[in-house]
Amino acid sequence: MAKILVTDGIDRGAAEALRAAGHEVTEQFFPPDELCVQAGNFDAIVVRSATKVTREVLDGAMKAGKLSLVIRGGVGVDNIDVPHAEELGITVRNTPAASSNAVAELAIGHMFALARYIYISNVTMRAGAWEKKSYTGRELQGKTLGLIGFGRIARETARIARGIGMKVIYHSRRGRKEGFDEFEYRPFEEVLSGSDFISLHVPVDKERGALIGDAEFALMKDGVYLINCARGGVVDEEALLAALDSGKVAAAALDVFETEPPKDERILQHERISLTPHIGASTKEAQQKIGAEVVKIIEEELGGR
Question: In the annotation, is 260 catalytic?
Answer without folding.
Answer: yes
